[in-house]
Queue: 4 jobs
Job 1
Amino acid sequence: MAVSISLVALFGLVLFFLLRSRSLGAGSAFVAAGFGFFLASTGAAEPITQLATAVIDALHQL
């Protein structure tokens, strides 16, 4: 749970800076957020969470 909250905060921060630097339009940001929201409700959510947790654990062990 803590990993997913941290990733949400990280991706939100990246999205904020992309919008601020005008590298990403508001429409694209809406599509990216919608895609993430709908992806979380599919069967792909669990493997993505496991992959993110494994990568973070591997980085922590370095």
Job 2
Amino acid sequence: MSTQTPSTETLTGELLAVSVGGVRDVHVGSRVIETGIWKSPVTWRVPVQGVNLAGDDQADRTVHGGPDKAVYAYASEDSAWWATQTGREFGPGAFGENLTTRGLDLSGARIGDRWRVGTTLLEVRQTRIPCFKLGLRMRDPLFVRAFAQAGRPGAYLGILEEGDLGAGDAIEVVFRPDHNVTSALMFQALLHDASLRPKLLHAPALPQFWRDWVAEHA
């Protein structure tokens, strides 16, 4: 099992935008779906408390939100890549992210990385597994499959220290655990390569839910 020895590597980035959104109803055929995936950027500093950003919400807390999915970050570099692939422009919040970043490889973020942003301290907890609501947001049901194949998942973070943050803040990775369990590796292990699943247990910060899941599915 890997230790929590900090890496000497220094990583910094920039918070380009902070986006929040409440729950809305979306009509899908004869059904009405509740979702909080529509996020819009705000211009003020946003309090980060409990398991959320102020003004943000999720429709189904059994699969979204909570302490291990309190904040979702997506890199502007990945949004730009999607623009080249699709011919569409993706502004801040387009992928349902709260934090749009620049200068950090979020696929390479390690489970347990800690970010100092504004007056908050956030910890990378897990990758993103896309669900059908991403297809609703993109108005393309096939986008979920494309996202699963692209291997650009972003990262979910928990809140270690409450505070506030805003666009233009620096992102300083103040702690890197001594393992190579990245968001991309977790994404690959859960969706494409079961042989990688035992490696997830090398990350001490991996949520208990996923530890139990790996024990059943490795």
Job 3
Amino acid sequence: MADLAEKTDRYERMLDAALAAATVTAPSGTPLGDAAAECEEMARSYLDDGRHFRDEDDLVNALASFSYGYGWLDAGVRMGLFDVPEGSHLFTM
């Protein structure tokens, strides 16, 4: 089983890569575009929060933040708010 530090680092890398891979599908200013922007903003905020917690040696809250951020982004992908590379292992589809 992975230790907490390794798992925290892995989830940070996964969220960072997922944010880089996902592109908004709907035009800005539309309801779907606004929803995508909110999902992306939440994911980025949780990434920043997780990094802050990790810098403070609070790995439990860091991991939780990375996980929540990833959940926001993955939910947006499942709802069709983001386009992601075909065959990507980063998302459930």
Job 4
Amino acid sequence: MRLPDLSGIQVPREPARLARRAVRQVLGTLLGLVLGPLLVLTALLLPLHVRAPFRRVRGWELLRLRRAYRVRLAQDDGHFLGGRRALLHGLAATVLGYVMFDLLLLATGVVVGSFFQSFYGSPVRFEFDFWVISRPAPAVLIVVGPACLLAAALYAEGAAWVQATLLGRWTSVVREDALESRMSSLLTTRRGVVLAIDDERRRIERDLHDGVQQNVVSLSVALARARRAEDPARSAELLGQAHRQSQDLIQEVREVAWRVYPTALDEHGLASALDVIAETCPLPVRTEVDVTMTLPSQVESAAYFVAREAVTNVVKHARASSIDLAVVAPGTTRRPTLRLTVRDDGLGGADPAGGGLQGLARRVAALDGSVEVDSPPGGPTVITMEIPCDRDS
């Protein structure tokens, strides 16, 4: 028995992701040398009722934490880090930023000096009180240069941990790109994929059992009655009925196959498949597709099934009069993302924990995407799906 060929499967480029994370955290730690003192100075102005500068700097600091360290705070509402907390956090950011600046300054001096000294052929000397180290400049550049970069990345990781730990004493903190969080997310996503596959199998079984199988049985009964009929006119009438049932059966098989996977998705793309959803929906559906890039097939498939299930849920439960379906996927951003929005004017009150919406979330989470549901009582209901479109994500 031959195993399937897995050579075409693309795995995430983990070194590139780790390098981007290291650069982001190094720059974020260095930026703390600027925002930390500003946070301390503006916090000292609070007893004088000068609050506007502090609020602005605090917003910058919370933005730095989110962008540089991917730190998400439970109390990120514009009122966190006030008073003495701001002083302590600002001092910590300042000290960590200063050490990072000193480390980068030392690394830059060693790397740049070794590089230029390599052209002269003279060695690099490190003089201490008790000994002197003299090594060829290319060796220092090759060995010490990468070691300094690694030291900066490790120090930035430690700085992120220190600041997240300090913030964790005051509120709950989640580092979205932490290794433990990533592993937990992958384990949850794997379980969600299994559940989504099981749900899809049950749905297909129901479609076949409740629809196709019943029509096949009815067609078989009609043909049997036609064979037993002694009156030619009656037999012809039953054969005509069986023929009509066979046409209905063919149409139903096509609909079941379309619900399993639409051929238009591969032949004509996502826009065409969404047009078919709009044409077959009993409610008016306004579609707007703005896709300026070639989407991966798995992203197109997920977007189609989310749109179809969302429209089906609106028809069944929302009592809406119209549906707006919009898809946007700009190809000019650094990390392109497909954004699908389904909006209806129904009663609202959709439960995000319901089985249907949870099934959509599990399907999208398998592609590192997310689904948000905004459905206040009285409506409108807005379902927003986002999936990254880079093939190596």
